[in-house]
Amino acid sequence: MKISNSEIGNAAWDARVKLTPGEVEHLLDCSQKILQELNLVQKDNLDSIKATFFGHEQPGSLREDIITDSLPLAKVLANSLYADEFCFHVPKIIEE
Amino acid sequence: MPEMETVVGLEVHVELITGTKLFCGCSTAFGADPNTNVCPVCLGLPGGTLPVLNKRAAEFTIKAAQALNCKISEMLTFDRKNYFYADLPKGYQISQFFYPMGTNGDVEINIDGETKRIGIQQIHLEEDTGKLLHIGTIISSPSSRVDFNRAGVPLIEIVTKPDIRSAEEARLFLQRLRSILRYLEISDCKMEEGSMRCDANISIRVKGGDNLGDKTELKNMNSFRSVYKGIEFEVARQKQVIKEGGMVAPETRHWDESKGITKAMRSKFVSADYRCFPDPNLPPLDITKEWLETIKAELPELPAARFKRFLLEYQLPVYDAEVLTNSKELSDFYEVTLTYFNDPKTVSNWVMGELLRLLNAASLEIEKCNIRPEALAKLLKMIDKNTISGKIAKTVFEEMFESGEDPEVIVKQRGLVQISDENALEDIIFQVLENNPKSVEDYHKGKKKAMGHLVGQVMKETKGKANPQKVNEILKNKLDN
Amino acid sequence: MDFYKIPSQKLAGQVREDPALLDEIFAMLSHFHNEVEDLNIFILFDPENIQKEMTFLKEKIAKGKSLSLAGVPVSLEDNICTENIATTCGSKMLSTYKPPFNSWASEKLQEAGAILAGKTNLEEFGVGCRGNSSFYGAAKNPWDQQRIAGKGAAAAVSTLMLPLSIATDTIGELRQAASYCGVIGFRPTYGRVSRRGVIEYASSMAQLGIISRKTSDLAAALEIISGPDPQDPTSLKGEVPSYRASLQNEEKVFKIAVPDNWDQAPGMEKDVKECFLEQLHNLTAGRVQVEYIPLRYFHKAYLAAAVISAAEAFSNLANYDGVRFGYRGEGKSLQDMYIKSRSEGFSSKLKQFLTFGALVSSGKHYEDYFLKSQRMRTRIKNELADCLERYDLLLTPTTPFTAPLAKPDTEPDQLADPALFYTAAASLAGLPALTFPLYTSVKRPAGLQFMGKAGDEASLLQISALLEERGISLSFPNPGSIK
Q1: Among C103, C318, C338, whose Cβ lies nearest the Cβ of B47?
Q2: Distance from chain centroid for Cα B167
Q3: Confidence band (pLDDT; 50, 70, 90) for C477?
Q4: What CATH code would you report for A1-44?
């Protein structure tokens, strides 16, 4: 499968970053190479085996439903330059 | 034109009533100041995003899946749904994409005297998002404000199969679903407060055949009524489009309650590539048979079963059984009352009549009502023993509803005990006959209606306390002799 | 006093005896810091904070607390959260971020009496090891300032300034940097050390690791920062072994496997190859047996790791939206603001990496890139597990080459960097791994990488101690002559 310039463009948009044409070019080249390399592994019939998505096989854990302290409001807002006394601000969103 | 039919599938989001959020210990309490129920996890702060699953939320979801007759997944897993939006702190929502908690279930509804099954495609657990607020009006506001108190609150999403054929079926399904979830005590399901939300996928097709256009997704229906009205409107609109030879466009539409119409929405919800993949921070957990059995053992009797039992055990009419069992609290109230006063139909009449009337008028939930089942039973016993009349009982009931006072106390204090003493009644009746010669004459001329007038006069004299049966007896006796 | 010669535990004993030593340690740190300033090791070195910590420590000692690392200066990489202390991840994006909480590791070290000596420089968000993406410039290699250190954490230990530093290892960055700087680099089993408070970019692989010059220091620090943490859902349950005690085992015989195609890495340096072979020869004596074995997937690990780490990073770094923290660009609309904030706040290299992550996890490529890589991961994991059932350890070079020359920011990287050719497999499989320093004929360090069974950190510490004992001793660059 070939990768196109526009696919790189879409991926950049989906990652919400802007790339220069040179960066797109380079990325296209790298992505293509990796895909080719991966294709060489095809013959080993990988489709039949389970994917590993986790760092180990220990099962997940559960927590009791007990309330713990939330952050004080001042700390919640401390790292934002765009906030009033309670809320974060974002550019106006008009839905519908 | 061939006969057309409506095809509707619902996606219902329900907030669970756990104490804490899905993946952190922040409170889920409603109505707190903005951004006061947040922590590094639910705010998505750098280095603070490790999620630890709330056991109760998982169990609530399993409960719901069991109650909806779903096949339960063997593994409890979570995936990330990636997209950017201002109300989504981490840039992804943790949800169950690959292995929903339950699949392939159903819910029964009763429509036109018949039972119909609505298929449940899946039920899964996920996080809620934050909330956007505006300064002033949307138009004048320079920016939007974000409150993350709701971010991370556990939600279950229930997706039906496209089995719904009308707005009425959609409404009945939602009501039944709410009823089930409230029986399970896992959500308060208040559409007006947003703890239950419903989107509808709507399309039109030739009966039993292929779709005549794409489906539209209808959003922003904030009450049972608006679900009904929104779907009705959208179905009519689609039929019109088809009738005019057009095609229904696949789009998301917004129900405008004030105008009573649906409108196409702008781009936010354009189908995106969410790049779902298993959340590496949340390794799978086995859902063991033992765990499922423990949870199942805690399931209460559900509305459908209770409905059937009420028909059989109490011989109630279908309508009574339906209304009573629709609410767990109401049917609990009913059954407790029966333990004190075992006359199912009479109790049903009072609960469905007087009690519901007063509750509705006061927009009160039954849990917050002043009247307890014991008190209602006491009142009914007083009628049964002829201590008070049925009519007086209604007045007493209203006062009980207001003050929560014991019915015996009310009756005593206000001297409402029924007059059944024949001597006392005869005296009063004698007076009434004296004072109403015209009615007596009319009666003798054959106008039987005059009797009613005379009874009314006796009741007036006794402030309604006379035993009506006795009054009738004595009057008749006097007039006829 | 030459503090750097004293094992950490002994130093801690002395400090407990005589807290006034802390003043000398402070003077030493200040002196060293001046000496190594050109190396750009630290993003934050705050003498005031060090003194504050020392005052606090003196109080604790006075109260008679048992503090196994009392007064031992330890640095944290600048992607490990420290409450109210800037934690930048080497990125413009977080240049003003002060976390309102501590990481597990910083808490544990503080409880043990360690002194936070500073926050070390790293590649932006800890991604890779090429010295070209930190907003604060690259950390330089103490052996040759024209070359990269890979991580400030490795350089700090290499200069003798610190006995220990804590840093992240995702696809092998910590081991690569340690190898480039000629120090011991250790990555524990996945889940051994809590990731709470660690700003990591690929959650299924990221682990906190330790850099040191002495095995005993490493074992002491590992005991402190290991352990089950109920707030990390991937944290390993069960008791942490006594790593210091495991070093007492001097009878153990090591069966070591080496992949027969170990020298197939792209860009393999001749010196590294020769040096590795020589060490292989030297190793095979007494308690150590070495055998070649065939591995089918090991040499593809770096491809899978490149794909998986990028896909996870795309998601892990999606919280940088300019709203609650971090750099914010001006935009008229919400989406415009996202693009500006992220495009101006992230380096070119990171932007490309995240885009690659979005590409390989997209609907169209999920199967051929992402899922396939995760399936290869299963193969790699099984292959390593099989091998480690028959052998105690698996041995390879740590990197195919010695520390690369620093290159201009503009020069693009390979996304599947050959630098992770050897380190990626342990990351994918969640195995513990250790790099032990070697010296090539070109007088630059390289490393021997050992990989162990999941949960068996002890064998790695034991082999490290054995090599130390055999006197493959290190002559470190003299800080006085660095300039």
Answers
A1: C103
A2: 17
A3: low
A4: 1.10.20
> Which 8-state DSSP code applies to residue C482?
-
Question: Which residues in B114-265 belong to E strands, given as ranges?
Answer: 114-127, 131-134, 143-147, 154-160, 196-206, 216-221, 251-256, 261-264
ipTM: 0.96
Q: Is the Cβ–Cβ distance between A74 and B244 less than 8 Å?
A: no
**Phi and psi dihedrals of C253, rounded to 5?**
-100, 135
Interface membership of C337 toward A (CB under 8 Å):
yes
Taking CA atoms, B245 is separated from B189, B241, B252, C244, in Å, by 40, 7, 21, 82
Domain boundaries, chain B: 4-292, 301-413, 422-480
Nearest Cα of chain C lies from the Cα of B227 at a distance, in angstroms, of 31
Angstroms from A23 CA to nearest CA on chain B? 23
Tokens 């009549």 -> residue: B353
**A64 and chain B: CB distance < 8 Å anywhere?**
yes
- Whole-number pLDDT of residue C483: 38
Distance (Å) from the C-alpha of residue A66 to the closest C-alpha of chain B? 6
Question: Is residue B108 over pLDDT 50?
Answer: yes
The domain C3-251+450-481 is classified under which CATH number: 3.90.1300.10, 2.40.128.20, 3.30.160.270, 3.40.50.300?
3.90.1300.10
Q: Judge contact between C272 and C447, C-beta under 8 A.
A: no
Q: How confident is the model at residue C91 (pLDDT cuts 50, 70, 90)?
A: very high
Q: Which chains touch A (3 or more CB pairs under 8 A)?
A: B, C
| CA Rg value for chain B | 30
Q: In the complex, which subunits touch C with 3 or more CB pairs below 8 angstroms?
A: A, B
pLDDT class for C29, splitting at 50, 70, 90?
very high
Average pLDDT over chain B reads 91
Across C325-479, the runs of DSSP E, i.e. the strands, are 393-397, 433-439, 445-451
Domains of chain C by residue range: 3-251+450-481
Q: What is the DSSP letter of C368?
A: I
The pLDDT tens digits of the residues spanning C172-184 come to 999 999 999 999 9
B49–C358 C-beta distance less than 8 A = no
pLDDT in tens, B409-464: 888 888 777 777 778 788 888 888 888 888 888 888 888 788 888 888 888 888 87
Check CB contact under 8 Å for B275 and C362. Answer: yes
Q: What is the CATH number of domain B422-480?
A: 1.10.10.410
> Which neighbouring-strand residues pair with B81?
B93
